[in-house]
Amino acid sequence: MIRKCKEHGYFRGEVCPECGNSGRYVLDDEREERLGRFVSGALRHFPDDVGLTMDKQGWVNMDLLCDIMERRYRWASRERLVSLVESDVKNRYEITGSRIRARYGHSVDVELDYPENELPYLYYGVSQEEVDMLLDAGIAPLRQTYVHLSTTPEKATESASVHTENPVVLEIDADEAQNDGIEFMAVNSDIVLAESVPPEYLVVVEMEE
Asked: Which PANTHER family match (predicted)?
């Protein structure tokens, strides 16, 4: 559920995490999920199919997206779209002026323009079956435009746990790779993007039990 606190803005849950105020109702769980699926599809995977024109950096016109969204869902509104974006703890989308885009997760061809990564090491969680293959061939995107790397071993483990019960974490020597011309973009505090990561920058992290 998404609600709005007068003092702290949109939040997810029953009470504002900043002050404990219950706030004003904006969107229930079912509609939040439906709207989230639509926005994800429109901004990451099939903008053309819903009637959007996306530029090279992944931006689309906010007013047009709202018009399309409101025709599809009678209960949808600009405020509900903004609430979805601003309350998202995963920071999946961003709005700038009259434009909106997904920060990551694209399967369409985009050329994102985020700042260069400044962390010396990055991390990537995989299944045990994938380890040897990736150490030999490197990391390349499968169904997405970019490889999504994590900023901590814990975040890499969390991401990989969605797909495997016993994830293995690979450490990427981002400092050396960037010195060699490999580009890494810092999307937010958790995610860094790369077009690919060659195998010579990868080692397995020995996680503490």
From this structure: PUTATIVE PHOSPHOTRANSFERASE, TRNA 2'-PHOSPHOTRANSFERASE 1
Residue found under tokens 């299944």: 127
CATH number belonging to domain 121-204 = 3.20.170.30
| CATH hierarchy code of domain 2-102 | 1.10.10.970
Position 140, amino acid: A
Q: What 3-state class would DSSP assign to 24?
A: strand
For the entire predicted model, the pTM comes to 0.89
The DSSP output letter for 10 is E
Per-residue pLDDT reduced to its tens digit, 11-47:
999 999 999 999 999 999 999 999 999 999 999 999 9
Q: Which amino acid makes up residue 116?
A: E
Neighbours of 194 (CB within 10 A): 23
Q: What residue ranges in 138-190 does DSSP mark as E strands?
A: 147-150, 168-173, 185-186
Q: Are strands 93-96 and 99-102 parallel, antiparallel or unpaired?
A: antiparallel
